[in-house]
Amino acid sequence: MNLTICIATPHTLAGSANAAHLWIFINWALGLRSLGCRVFWLEDVGPLTAPRLMRDIENALADLQDRLRPLGLADDVVVASLHDHGPVALPIEGTPDLAGALEADLLINFLYAAPATFVRRFRRSALVDVDPGLLQMWMSRAQITVAPHDRYFTIGETVGTSSARFPDWGAPWQYTPPPVFLPAWPVVTADASARYTTVTGWWDKWMELDGEMFSNEKRTAFLKYLELPRRVPREMELSIILDEFTLSTDRVILEQHGWKVREARDLCATPERFREYVQGSRGEFTCARPSAGRLNSTWVSDRTVCYLASGKPAVVEYTAPSRYAPEGGLVRFKTMEEVVAALEAIEFDYGRHSRLARDIAEEHFDATKVARSVLERALE
């Protein structure tokens, strides 16, 4: 496809942006490039105010380019200041011209709050929702203003359907699987001591739904399975950002119950480091935010698809019925007993579950297939 695509990304210039977050957009960019597209990676730096000095932006850009260079994506990063009066180019030597990015055939927009003046500059535009349920709640409550787009895509299977327990904001949502670029994620056999792992957020805000307040923290979800390491034959590991409070409280509690706890900032310092971590794992065990189950927003994590592509079986928390009901490789759970049973079944025939994990990635989450489908629908 002889097309130029601009993907607008959130928070990839931030020094704290971990590589697990970057891989969301890397997988999209590599999938698009595999189809012959030129891909611009556009990051909004926000208002150009005195506290955000140009040299800080230049340093952050150089860091992002260093992280993307091994993947061949460094030379097409564009930075701009997006506001209601229109996008403003930043005069940074060695970066592509903003005007070229704005001439793209399609904007694939992950930046939910991008101003309408920016979105309208493109021939065609497609919003991609990677926070299903939450984004629609934010939109319906006017917590975020989303500009009109030509197409609306979501990784949530129930968004816009009668199964969802949240409004759809009136947008014609279309489902797209989260992509993983298979050549960048080959099957790797871990050593005999490998653990089940995940990279996860820990703290979050409280949320109100149907008049009830509840904690939407991954912490709340994982602590329900505090006793899990004592009940399964393999070691279990969590990679989380360890602030001082987490170090002195939750890490101690988790380790007392047999969990291995590691610092996510170290393991996600670069895209290669995150990939090594996933591929050095036995598989993934992960919980969903409490809101995912309450909202019935069925989805597969962008990190989980990386595990699957690498031949790592994934045991993930059930949130709602899914179109993906494989015979193995990807197993959903509701209770402690179901987690234990799933891990025991995987360990009993690990080779089979490993092959099925890769098969699932190839059939459903292949970035080249996902990108082609999105382009066909967005440009029709």
Shape: globular
Give a quick account of the main beta sheet: strands, pairing sense, barrel closure: 8 strands, mixed
Extract low-pLDDT stretches. Answer: none
How many structural domains in the coordinates?
2
Assigned CATH class of the largest domain: Alpha Beta
Radius of gyration: 21 Å
Which structural class matches the secondary elements?
Answer: alpha/beta
Mean pLDDT: 92
How many strands appear in the DSSP assignment? 16
First-to-last CA distance: 14 Å
Count of DSSP H/I helices: 15
Strands of the widest sheet, in order across it, are 4-3-2-1-5-6-7-8
Share of helical residues: 25-40%
CATH level-3 fold name of the largest domain: Rossmann fold
Strand content: 15-25%
At CATH level 2, the architecture of the largest domain is: 3-Layer(aba) Sandwich
Note down, in words, how this protein is organized:
This protein is α/β, with parallel strands linked by helices and 380 residues long. It has 2 domains: 4-180 and 366-379, Rossmann fold, CATH 3.40.50; 183-364, Rossmann fold (3-Layer(aba) Sandwich), CATH 3.40.50. Helix content is 35%, strand content 17%. The strands form 4 sheets. It has an 8-stranded mixed sheet. Strands 9-14-15-16 form a 4-stranded parallel sheet, sandwiched between helices. It has a two-stranded antiparallel ribbon with strand order 10-11. Helix 12 crosses helix 14. The longest helix has 16 residues, at 19-34. It is globular, with a radius of gyration of 21 Å. It starts with a strand and ends with a helix. The mean pLDDT is 92.
